[in-house]
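For reproducibility, we list the full input for the zinc ion complex.
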Amino acid sequence: MPQADMTNTDELNRYLFDNMHARGELVQLSNSYQAIINNHNYPLGVRLLLGELLAATCLLTATLKFEGEITVQLQGDGPVSYMSVNGNNNQQMRGIARLAVADMSNEVTTLHDLIGKGTMVITIRPTQGEAYQGVVALEHATLADCLAHYFEVSEQIPTKIWLFIDDDKQQAAGSLVQLLPDGDGSSENKDKQESDFEHLTQLTNTIKADEIFTLEAQALLYRLYHQEKVSLFEPQAISYQCGCSSDKCLAAISQIKPDEISAILTEHGKISMTCEYCLTCYDFFADDLKSFTSKQTH
Ligand SMILES: [Zn+2]
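The corresponding predicted structure, in tokenized form, follows.
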């Protein structure tokens, strides 16, 4: 496994720009990204986009103000038919990509060439309460710009996102700058907001990939924003967690008709389920499934 340069990997930092009514986020990922791509044998373009989607979903998950989870899905008519990253308010992440083709060239790396004509679906699912779903067409060249577009249409909040991947080191990173909803809505206020956003965008544009992958968060933020007053929140650790379990598989199997379960057991001696995310294989034998098969009425 490649050695990461960052001292604290898999960490999310959130901060406020005190004099500007704006906020920012920085995410740096190593182990969680590797856990998602390892063992899947994804082509280069899929590894890159999945890393971007992971970093982006971490940035979005940090905006959750309640217990719950966010899923960001990309789907389209390209060689990558489906890609999804899911994370909760504790920054426990997982992700998956499905290919529509058996062989994909390593030359295919742009969002459009990978997903084709497609959409991004963002689902916010609070532990308590109604789920909310937003859909936008993937009309921009990069995932970062598609996400900024999502914020613009769904929440009317000026947002800019930067995403970085290092395929050799297997690291992903991202940053976000976002205005806070403004106070009095006066035009004077609006002008200041616009120029503040422009200013922060220009500063953040100067991030270099080798910095975001090697500098610790504090050093990087100082490098970018040392002229500004920045209040940093406690950093949040990010981890890979699939969330699959034997119980969840059994719950899925319980939806199958008892006579179908019996037929599979007769033919194969067991029912096997492989988690698509982490590739863990769960085997269930007749004894494990007794409560389902005994429901059989004939
Ligand atoms: Zn799993």
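The longest strand covers residues 68-76. The chain has ten helices and 14 strands. Both points were considered when choosing residues for closer inspection.
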